[in-house]
Design brief:
It contains five helices and five strands. The protein is of the alpha/beta class. It has a five-stranded parallel sheet, with helices on both faces. α3 runs parallel beside α4. The chain is globular, with a radius of gyration of 14 Å. It binds 1,3,4-trihydroxy-5-OXO-cyclohexanecarboxylic acid. The site of 1,3,4-trihydroxy-5-OXO-cyclohexanecarboxylic acid has 10 residues, from loops.
Length: 139
């Protein structure tokens, strides 16, 4: 399968950012492990701190270039109707992912503007949330 992982704002700082919440591994290192584990699949990775770039990427890949998209929209999860609309506009299924348990944190993180546009949500399992999303997509 072709699976694209999209990470939103501040996720480029994984491994250096609030380590008690997000852990000490960089996403690049984790992604290399994922690629090794799923060597029969085609995993690609894109990160941007900009809402419009994330929307452009969803448009670019979401009409069949990949089979599924795993999206951690970061803080845009809680603000972006535009990303939610983009997910609804494309044909490829999108899974919402969070490293932390957003429901056990600040009140504003309990609201997801994108959840209803996605086929499902996985949150709270650390970086393993991405692997769980890939497993869900493959099933
Ligand atoms: C996050 C949770 C968001 O609330 C936060 O803004 C992030 C990361 C997570 O993966 O746990 O940037 O999406």
């Amino acid at each position: 399968m072709k699976i694209l992982i999209i990470n939103g704002p501040n996720l480029n700082l994984l491994g250096r950012r609030e380590e008690s919440i997000y852990g000490s591994k960089s996403f690049e290192n984790y992604f290399a492990e994922l690629q090794e584990k799923y060597c029969n699949d085609e995993l690609t990775y894109y990160q941007s701190n900009n809402e419009g770039d994330i929307i452009d990427k969803l448009h670019e890949e979401g009409f069949g270039k990949v089979d599924a998209i795993v999206l951690n929209a970061g803080a845009y999860t809680h603000t972006s109707i535009a990303i939610s609309d983009a997910i609804r506009a494309i044909k490829v299924p999108v899974i919402e992912v969070h490293i932390s348990n957003v429901n056990a944190r600040e009140e504003y993180r309990r609201i997801s503007y994108i959840a209803a546009s996605c086929i499902g949500t996985i949150a709270g399992f650390g970086l393993d949330s991405y692997r769980l999303a890939i497993e869900a997509v493959k099933k």
